[in-house]
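Subject: Predicted fold for MRP49, 149 residues

User T.R. writes:
Posting the sequence so we have a shared reference for the thread.
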Amino acid sequence: MSQLAAKYTPKITRQIKRVNNLRGRPSSSFKFDASKFKEFEFFIYHQNPYIYKPASGILRLFETALPTLRYHNPDVQFTITKVEVNDPKELLELPLMVKIYGENPENVQTIDCTNKPPHQILNELVELTNARKLKKEEIPFIPLRPTKR
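User M.O. replies:
I've generated the structure tokens; pasting them so everyone works from the same file.
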């Protein structure tokens, strides 16, 4: 038997890196109470040729933090509503927001995301929902090399 350490195939290594990236870090990993909140709806604007700078915060949150939030909260539904405009004048009326739907139909909260950076939107979402920050021990990690048995 060879003395060299066992390795995964490159394809498996890429998949492990992707899963480890999805799991996030303790600073960006939160758990929502699924008994209180049933859905989060994100209104996203990303359309060419019209670039709208005030929409960049929620778009960046969608690209970076949302996969991690989905990974740690499989019991909560995350809905993405892509908003489009036909005329640049309509940009000022875009509904750039996050809607938080509670178990009761009357319990709907809204976060206005216009001109806000992604970390501020995430902080407001965590405050409104009293989300629990996950500890490092609670976040699964897959080692890049197989362990010896």
